[in-house]
Write a structure and sequence with these properties.
The chain is 48% helix and 6% strand. By secondary structure, the protein is mostly helical. It has a single domain (10-97), classed as Rna Polymerase Sigma Factor, Chain: A, CATH 1.10.1740. The relative contact order is 0.18.
């Protein structure tokens, strides 16, 4: 399910990610979901569910953008000026080539 604005993403994600990280998560999720729905064969692993795969890409994007879990459950920017500007397809390709755990 694509999300048009941050307020539409799951509440559990809104609760832990700052607004900028929510935007990264949402855009990555939307792009990956559209691609995986169109071509499920590009999904890694045995579970070919486009939504679950898009969630993995979204979290990968947040981490690649320099966010990490701070104290408690809240995420913080971990590296100064580390925002990695990847377009949707490049981000998905980076995820698919990564050794990111399933």
């Amino acid at each position: 399910m694509p999300y048009r604005k941050n307020s539409e993403i799951p509440q559990r994600i809104q609760n832990v990610l700052p607004d900028r990280a929510q935007t990264v998560w949402r855009k990555a999720f939307n792009n990956a979901h559209a691609r995986f729905k169109k071509d499920p064969g590009t999904i890694k692993g045995p579970d070919k569910d486009p939504e679950r795969a898009a969630i993995k890409v979204a979290w990968f994007a947040v981490k690649q953008a320099g966010w990490s879990k701070g104290e408690g459950e809240k995420w913080v920017k971990s590296l100064k000026d580390s925002l990695l500007e990847l377009s949707g397809d490049l981000l998905i390709e980076a995820f698919l080539r990564s050794e990111y755990p399933e």
